[in-house]
Amino acid sequence: MQSQLSFFVSIAFSFIAWGIVTRRYIWPELRLRQRAEALRPLLILHSFRFIGLAFLVSGVVSLDLPSAFAHSAAYGDIIAAILALLALTTLPSASGVAIAWIFNLWGSADLFNAFYQAYHSGLLAGQLGAAFFLPTLIVPLLLITHGLAFRILLQHENESATNEGRQPAQRTNVALTSRHTS
């Protein structure tokens, strides 16, 4: 019971920490970019999802790790990584945007399915072995960046995610200039 509680608390704190990082550092940069350029760093991050294959490596994970969880998580992640790379190589074309949508839908569903499979199979935190850090450190970041990708994909091709962009700074400079000239 104590290890399961530690597992869920770790996931919760990871969501909080990655949420802060995203709000303060990632989103302010991505929101100023056009759709394809904003998606690129997210797709590069998700291209590392091949690491989910670690769920299939005995010695990294316990031999008792439920195979339904291990196989769906591992193969779902490698498919997400392949889709991310395909989208990355085909952006900014229309087919690249379509593949980015497919990647984002698949990748999000894969992560939610992993949570479902873990619960349904009765996964215990200790069965993850060295892979404990994947769902506690990496998965929250991946889910948050899927949310960002959905937001970016919903914007028009040639506009940034917010119309605010750099306009407030420009208005401030104009206001300061007009004060000094009067």
Beta-strand percent range: under 5%
Low-pLDDT segments, ≥5 res: 164-179
Number of helices: 6
The number of domains is: 1
Identify the overall geometry. Answer: globular
By secondary-structure content and strand pairing, the structural class works out as: mainly alpha
Please give the share of residues in helix: over 70%
Q: For the report, how would you describe the main beta sheet?
A: none
Number of strands: 0
What is the H/E order?
Answer: HHHHHH
**Span between termini:** 71 Å
- Rg (CA only): 20 Å
Kindly state the mean pLDDT as a whole number? 90
Account of the 3D structure:
With 182 residues, the protein is mostly helical. It has one domain (2-181). The protein is built from 6 helices and no strands. The protein has helices at 2-30, 35-46, 67-90, 94-120, 133-153, 167-181. Helix 2 packs antiparallel against helix 3, helix 2 packs antiparallel against helix 5 (133-153) and helix 3 (67-90) runs antiparallel to helix 4.
What's the structural blueprint in terms of helices and strands?
Elements: H1 2-30, H2 35-46, H3 67-90, H4 94-120, H5 133-153, H6 167-181
Helix pairs in contact: 1-5, 2-3, 2-5, 3-4, 4-5
